[in-house]
Amino acid sequence: MRHRLLGRTGLRVSELFFGAMSFYERDGAEATQRYRAMLDAYDEAGGNVIDTASAYGESENVLGELLVGRRDRFVLASKYTLSRDQSDPNAAGNHRKNLVLSLEESLRRLRTDYLDLYWVHLWDRQTPVEETMRALDDAVRAGKILYIGISDAPAWLVSRANTLAEWRDWTSFAALQVPYHLLRRDAERELLPMAEAFGMSVAAWGPLAGGVLSGKFTVPGGVEPGAATRVDAASLTAREHAVARAVVTVADELGARPSQVALAWTCARHAAVHPIVGASTVGQLIENLGAVDLVLPLDAIRTLEAAAEFELGFPGDFLAQCEADPWVFGTARLASRP
What we know:
alpha/beta, 8-stranded parallel β-barrel
C-alpha cells in the first residue's frame, strides 16, 4: 500500500484508513481474536491509520488492548463531540470542557499518552469555532494531540476555522472527514474543493454506501441468509440499483470485486481522498484492501459516473460555464495551476 502526506504535514498515511467502528462490542475471546486478525491483515498490507471515536462503544478499549507493544507504528485517530452522558448538558459538544474530558477518557481507553490525529466529530452550532480551535491548539501544545481534523461540517466553517488558525498561529485542520461514494457525491460541490485549496487530506466514510456498492444486493448469493445489513434490498431506489449494477458490470470486466471498484473510484476521483474501510470479517477486509491495486480505466470511470447521475449545482456549474465562455474571460487560456 502506498502512502501520502497528511494535509500539509510531514506525517505519512496509507491510502486506505481502517475504520474500527466494527469493534463496537466486546463479544468474548473469539471476537477479540477476529479483531486482532483484521488489524494484523491491515498492518501486513501496509496500512497504518486506525480511525475510531469516543462514541463507538467498546472500540477504544478493544484497540487499546490490541495495540499493546505496537501502538507507535500506527497513526491512531479518535473523535470527540458526541455525548458521554446524555443527562449532562456539558458532556457533549465542541466546547473546551467536553474536549478535555473526552480526550482524557480516550487516552485512558486506548492506553496511550497521545493521539496522532484528533477529529472534531461534527459541527456544534452552539460553540464558537474560536473556542474549539484554541482548545485543540492547547492540546497540541501539551503533546496530547499531534494533528487535528474535522468531520461532518460545512465548508465555510472549516475555511473560517483554518483561516483563524493561520492568523492566530494556532494548529490548523490537516484533514477533513466526509461521506463520499458514487451514490453520494455532494462533497464535490464545496467540501472537496475547499479541502484542495487548504491542502487537506480527505477521509471518506461509508465508501461502500452501507454495502449497496459491495455487490451484496446485486450478485447472486451476495447476502448470506439471516445476515445483518445496514440497508434492505427492497428499500433501494431505482438509482441505487442502477449504480450497484454498474459497479458489478465494471468489476466483471476488470476481473475485480465490486467493493474494490467502488473504493478505487473514490481514490481515482480525487487524489487526496482516503476511503475508510471497515469489515465484519478478515476475508471482507482483505477483499477491500485489494482496491489499492486496481486502476480504473477512463471508460470504466465514465460507465460508473453515467449511472450515478449528479449535478454540481450552483455556483459550480455556473462558474464552469463562465470559464469556458470567451465573453467572460476572453479567448486566452491559462495553464492550470500545479
